[in-house]
Structure formats: structure tokens, C-alpha cells
Amino acid sequence: AFSLFSFVSLAQNSKAGLGRAIVPLHH
Question: Which domain of life does the protein's organism represent (predicted)?
Fold first, then answer.
């Protein structure tokens, strides 16, 4: 199961890539 915790962890790990991709997806 893909939990939010895992998603956040990945985002922090690849903030440069995932972080920027999550911003538009989350909004």
C-alpha cells in the first residue's frame, strides 16, 4: 500500500524533482 508517509519521504528525497511535480498536482 502506498501511504502518504511514503509519498512525503520520496518527495523529501527527491524534492528537486518530485517536490516540483507535486506542487502542480496537489493544487
Answer: Eukaryota
